[in-house]
Amino acid sequence: MIEDGTEVLARVVRGGVVESVHRGHLVVLGPDGAVRLRRGDPDVTFFPRSALKPVQAVAMLRAGLDLDGELLALACASHSGEPDHLAGVRRILDGAGLEASDLQNTPALPLDADAASAWQAAGNGPSSLTQNCSGKHSAMLATCVAAGWDRAGYRDPAHPLQQAVRAAVAELTGDGDPAHTTVDGCGAPLFSCTVAGLARAFARIATAAPGTPEHRVATAVRAHPWWVGGTGRFATGLIGAVPGLVAKDGAEGVFAAALPDGGAVAVKIEDGSARPVPPVVTAALGVGGLDEIGRVPVLGHGEPVGEVEPVR
């Protein structure tokens, strides 16, 4: 989806020499919604991948999903597949009278290396339960149960659940009806938006009035960052370090975040690499004390000899 018009967002510096660069699109919105910084073309249409999950969760709550706290955060997650993540997915399914066999997301091993090793050591292979989107898929199934919708076809873009998601994407991004629909890596429908639209959606979630589905999502993400990602994950660390932040990563170099005052950031790295995301996002947020969280070292013989540096 990414078109021409990208700019250099980060430089990879080794031994004081720029070794390579990462190009992309970046937007920073102020609390008033005005564009404070733009790199590349924030109005370009792209696929936000898993960064869309908080918006999908808003749609599910509107349709009757009854989750809050850590399980709602898990519905927004690209989790690492650690034991408590898997137990949480089972809790969502149990609460709706469902089983792991009802999940239709693409089987995969846990993202976390230790969790994957333990899962395989127990004689297990790739599973829909351990795939990082199982929180979202279990919540989608639970939404269907709550709304009285067919469960078997919940991944069909024409299904009432996915039409509700589509409407939420159009509303919260402010982009209007999504221009493109495809299938995400997990098997769920994926709707396009603009980079600026993704930032607007996060700002609206982060500033929503108490009691609204948007506020429920924001509260869950803020209070339970580990459930959104996992041990050692950038999104988890960033949410935990910045009071009131709502943030989510997505595949192919996507990230979005919003502060409680409505300031927001969205980025898409053109080459799909996650490597430059931490320094680019932490620099764009403009919040102090994030140097370590955003640092991505360049190694030589296992030792730091440079860094991935954001272009400010």
TrEMBL record:
InterPro entries reported for this sequence: Asparaginase_II
Domain of life: Bacteria
Any Pfam family hit: Asparaginase_II
Protein name as it appears in the record: Asparaginase
Organism the protein comes from: Pseudonocardia kunmingensis
